[in-house]
Design brief:
By secondary structure, the protein is of the alpha+beta class. It is built from 16 helices and 16 strands. The protein is globular and about 85 Å long. One of its GO terms (biological process) is purine nucleobase metabolic process.
């Protein structure tokens, strides 16, 4: 078990991080050479878990173990294998590698329980040291459901600027969002790229056929680094996600009057940049406002960000004639987000009217908040707390005592809200019974070469997910997930 849950996943994360299109940094963008090599490597690791595997028309890598018995439910796991430019080794990749380790750990744990010696058969060891499970054996061990893992081809949207490309294909919403029309910087549409680079004869027909049948999926579970500092600050390895914040992106354009910096009097100016600066501070104040003064409660995780600013003409001796800036507003619940968006637009309009400068606010993006399923959350929390027994047989005493003590941390698994978007948002449109498990990362840093998850925390997340899967599809002790159509409540 130590090899399957500790040595292999940590070695595989390092190996995957070495597959890059750039020298000295990590970059895997959609359908690049490194992207294709990563897909091949992930397929091999899926085969080692006893999975049948294939790559679909948009590049998603699928691995599946179908239960030998007539089991109806399938637990869907997933994360993405593309990266941002100059990214880190764990964003996206962690969910895939931990998913594979958990599947293997679940199967090996069941084999050890069934055996008379409590040890694994020697024939499961491959010549390079990794454990390899035959497909027929893997299938025979699943009594209450199947397991399906998807490595999504593109979540970050670096090439086409359209996030969740892979997961929307699986959810069946790729055409709904008109993503085949998205263009890369060279002007090539996704439809043309699929034809020319992926050999897809008819992208529309192919996209329509990629959706998994929602009725066959009992739930979707995704493991991801927290990308924030909360878990590390509390000294805790894992957190259960209650929901993913909704997001609105605006682009504000302010048109002033361009002029000479030395000759136009201050009181006669219509400075687009000065007006924009006032708007930025007004928007920031909206999200900083205390609850007792009408602001959002802290648990709403309301955040407002201006991350991009374009100034024309951008010269030190010229009054700006035009300034544009982005606004990113996120909250756990949509009513709060929508209220703050309206207030932000009103604040912009008020500054424009008072300063006498024309303004325009374009709404670029809206994503509704997604709440995790209560039953999945409860089962995942229970599995994380129960991972102690697995870790005691997987890690050494020294490893267990690091980072404030892993075992103690599992006795108080917190519930968090994700401010970042994840593939779970796209999948939830087709599979509402969604859950996520966060893993702490050093300094809360992500989308950076400094991104880091301690090896013991990787193992802890794999052990928790293995226990969750075992309870769902092997032993059945967690029972079926309760759905909207009156399914039975999860029994823990």
């Amino acid at each position: 078990m130590r090899r399957a849950l500790h040595l292999e996943p940590n070695a595989h994360l390092k190996q995957l991080a070495e597959i890059s299109d750039t020298e000295g940094s990590l970059a895997r963008t959609y359908l690049s050479p490194a992207h294709r090599r990563a897909a091949q490597q992930i397929q091999q690791w899926m085969r080692d878990c006893g999975m049948e595997t294939w790559v679909d028309a948009v590049g998603n890598v699928h691995g599946r173990i179908k239960a030998a018995h007539d089991a109806q439910q399938t637990v869907l796991l997933g994360s993405h294998y593309d990266t941002v430019l100059d990214g880190g080794a764990y964003d996206g990749a962690l969910g895939i590698i931990v998913g594979l380790a958990a599947v293997k750990g679940m199967l090996l744990g069941e084999l050890m329980q069934r055996g008379t010696t409590g040890r694994l058969p020697e024939q499961l060891e491959s010549k390079d040291g990794d454990v390899v499970i035959p497909p027929t054996l893997a299938s025979s061990l699943l009594r209450f459901g199947s397991v399906h893992l998807v490595a999504f081809a593109d979540e970050e949207g670096v090439r086409f600027g359209s996030t969740f490309l892979g997961s929307r294909a699986v959810a069946g919403t790729l055409l709904k969002y008109n993503m085949l029309a998205a263009k890369d910087r060279a002007g090539a549409s996704l439809a043309n790229v699929l034809r020319e680079e992926a050999g897809v004869a008819d992208p529309w027909v192919a996209a329509a056929s990629l959706a998994l049948e929602p009725g066959s999926i009992s739930e979707y579970v995704e493991v991801h680094i927290e990308q924030g500092p909360v878990l590390e600050a509390r000294g805790l390895p894992l957190g259960v996600v209650a929901g993913i914040a909704g997001q609105t992106r605006l682009w504000v354009t302010v048109n002033g009057t361009q002029g000479h910096a030395g000759t136009v009097p201050m009181r006669g100016r219509r400075d687009a940049l000065a007006a924009a600066a006032e708007m930025v501070t007004a928007i920031e104040s909206l999200c900083l406002q205390p609850e007792e003064q009408g602001g959002a409660p802290e648990e709403e995780n309301l955040v407002c960000t201006v991350g991009e600013l374009k100034v024309w003409p951008g010269a030190s001796n010229v009054i700006s004639g035009s300034t544009g800036f982005s606004v990113d507003i996120r909250s756990k619940t949509d009513p709060v987000r929508m209220r703050v968006v309206k207030e932000a637009v009103r604040a912009v309009e008020a500054v424009c009217a008072r300063r006498g400068v024309p303004c325009a606010v374009d709404r670029k993006h809206d994503a509704e908040a997604v709440l995790a399923d209560a039953d999945v959350m409860e089962a995942m929390k229970a599995a994380a707390e129960a991972a102690e027994s697995i870790l005691k047989t997987t890690l050494t005493e020294e490893e267990l005592s690091r980072h404030g003590g892993l075992l103690e941390g599992l006795r108080k698994v917190p519930v968090l809200v994700s401010g970042a978007g994840h593939d779970a948002m796209a999948i939830a449109e087709a599979v509402p019974r969604m859950g996520m498990l966060f893993v702490r990362c050093r300094g809360g840093v992500s989308h950076s070469p400094l991104e880091h998850v301690e090896p013991e925390d990787v193992t802890t997340s794999a052990a928790a997910l293995a226990g969750y899967l075992w309870g769902r599809v092997v032993s059945g002790v967690m029972g079926p997930v309760r759905g909207e159509q009156g399914r039975d409540k999860t029994e823990l």
